Structures are given as structure tokens and as C-alpha cells.
Amino acid sequence: MITLEQRIASFSSLGKVFEIASSGVDNNLGALIDKLKAHNGWFTPENVRFALSNWAMLLSESNIKKWVNSYSLANQSPKSIGIIMAGNIPMVGFHDLLCVLMSGNRAKVKLSSKDNVLMAEVIHTLISIQPEWSSYIQIEDGPMKDFEAVIATGSDNSARYFDYYFGKYPHIIRKNRTSIAILTGKESSNDLQQLGWDIFRYFGLGCRNVTKLYVPDQYDFTMFFDAISVFRFVLENNKYANNYDYNKAVFLLNKTPHLDNGFLLLREDAALFTPAALINYQTYANQQELQEMISTQKEAIQCCLGNQMDFNCLPFGSSQSPDLFQYADGVDTMQFLVGLS
After folding, report:
1. Spatial distance between the Cα atoms of 99 and 103, rounded to a whole number of angstroms
2. Helix residue ranges per DSSP H, the chain
3. What does each C-alpha distance from 220 to 60, 111, 198, 279 come to in angstroms?
4. Helix and strand totals (H; E) in the chain
5. Phi first, then psi: what are they for 96, rounded to 5°?
6. How do strand 259-260 and strand 265-268 relate by DSSP bridges?
7. Residue 315, CB half-sphere, CA atoms under 13 Å: how many?
8. How far apart are CA 8 and CA 253, in angstroms?
9. Which of 108, 166, 175, 204 would be 209's cystine partner, CB 3.0–4.6 Å?
10. If we measure between CA atoms, which residue out of 42, 90, 88, 51 comes closest to residue 237?
């Protein structure tokens, strides 16, 4: 059995490999980065390096110890945990794998076809650091079987299938979520530019990406558009540009009122979810109205960005840099795994 100290050391070493790869040094993982876009057009080198760099910072030995010391991990009896990963952004399933292995359990991993190249290399690298992990990690090519609990991430539609097949097992089943930002009109240009990262990082495809803005009545978007003008480079990605062109054509054809800065479309709409290159917004008259609008959709909101203390907002620009304690959907994955024993 791999001791807790060995688990911490191996993931800390993995973090150092991530740091080297994200800096452009040509280790095995680094050499893969420039090839990933051919497999998945959304996985640009810049975004993959950002994901690796984030994880490199999180996987310091002191940070891991601080995290795991919050849980009772002694004398855990290893269980087989099925992990069905999403693939909308690079390494989105890594946190689940980290939780399963750090809690002393075995992982049966179903990789997303969108992120099977990068995640497979990450797993291979971890095993090369600590060979004993090979008996704790199994990548499943066929149907998931011989497991005792499941962590599955997907859409609202796939969640219904997950619940049907896995509902009788202890499980965490995640559905569609997205993120919002609250503007007051008092934001600085830097605030709004940082918000741009919450919108455009990973081209807006992550559950922590902002797809909905709440703005005061009569809000003037001029300063917002000026601040995010530096993100025009997103059009260099053909998949993003195709989304922008398609949605703009539909709006023009249907004469749908919208705002357009040349690479991002804004539409006044109550819906939370949007495709890439489109953001919905909704106006509010006062705090009570804002609270009511958000509360009706809170189950679909992953996080909130802004300077509003009343809504537990994260600082602008921080949505894609969660720490180890920030669990998807607010469900403590580690506590779930510890509780299985």
C-alpha cells in the first residue's frame, strides 16, 4: 500500500514536472503540448500550459499537506472508484483523480475522448514517478465495471444516464453548470479586463467560465468593451471564430437585438448557458431584484465573479484558478471518499 507520505511526495513531484512542461522545457509532457491542438482544436498550447502551471502551483508539498490534513485519511480501506471524466477544458478531470488517489482509493478512469491524450500522459507520468500507482489506476476502454462508488461529470442529458446506471452505488453525479459575474458600474478598467479572463480563458468552455452578466439598469457597456479589447486574439482560433460568425449570422438573420465588439456577442436574455463567443446579460434595479434573479438559477451556477460581498463572489480574474479546497458543484469530493469507509 502506498503510504500517505508517498502519495504526497509523488504528486508534489508531478507538480514539478508540470512546472517544467508549462515553462516550455521539452520533457515528455512538454513535447506533447504543441501536438494537442491537432487532436482537439480547443486545446491551444497557451491554455494547456496555463492548466499545467496552475496545477504546478497547487501541488506543492506544503499545499497538499494543508489540504489532506483536513481529512481523516488514516487506516483507509482502498475501494475501487469509477471516474467518468469530462473533457471540455484541459485536465478538467484531474482533481477527481487526485482526490481518489490521495484518499487511498483505486481509480477506474473513463477518459473523455476530448482529453484522452493529455490525461493519459499525465497518468503515465505519475506512474513513472511512483510505479506502485500502476496497481491503483486503471484506464477503462469499455463499460465501467467492478467499482464500489462513482464520480461522473457530464451534461444534464448524460447525468440522467449516469443516475440510471450508477444510482444504486454511492456517487457524485455532476450536471451542466456555468458561472456568472455581477457588475455594479463602479468597476475599474482593470477589474473588467480581469473579468475578460473569466470569460475567454479556455474560450469560455469551462463550468467556471462566465457566460452571464448581471448589470444595473441603463448600464453602459462601452468601458467593458474597451477593457476586453485585448482579448481579440481569440479569433485566431478557428473553432471560436466559427462560433462567433455563426451566432452573429443567426442574430442578423433573425433581427435579434444584440451588441457586438467584433469578437464577442452580447444578448439580453435570462438564460445562463451560451455557446462560445456569446454572453447573455440581464439588468437589475436593486439588490433585492438581483438576489431573486440569481436565486432562481443557483443550482446551475458554479461560481460568481465580482466585488459583491453579499453573493460570495470571487475576485475578477480568478475563476480558472481554484484551490484544492474548491470542489465542483460545492460537493466535498474528499469527504465523500473518506465517508465510504
Report:
1. 6
2. 4-22, 28-33, 36-39, 45-58, 61-68, 94-102, 116-129, 156-166, 189-200, 222-227, 238-254, 287-295, 333-339
3. 43, 44, 20, 15
4. 13, 11
5. -65, -45
6. antiparallel
7. 8
8. 56
9. 204
10. 42
Model confidence band, residue 254 (pLDDT cutoffs 50, 70, 90): very high
**Pairwise CA distance, residues 15 & 74, whole Å:** 24
User: What is the tens place of the pLDDT at every residue in 47-84?
Assistant: 999 999 999 999 999 999 999 999 988 767 899 999 99
Write out the three cell numbers for 217: 439598469
- Cα 246 from Cα 244, distance rounded (Å): 6
Q: What is the largest CA-CA distance in the chain?
A: 64
- Helical pair 4-22 and 45-58, crossing angle rounded to 10 deg: 150
- Measure the CA–CA gap between 116 and 118, rounded to whole angstroms: 6
Q: State the residue for C-alpha cell 480563458.
A: 201
Identify residue 16 by its one-letter amino acid code: K
- What's the DSSP call for residue 181? E
Residue 57: closest CA among 69, 45, 42, 67: 67
Its pTM stands at 0.95
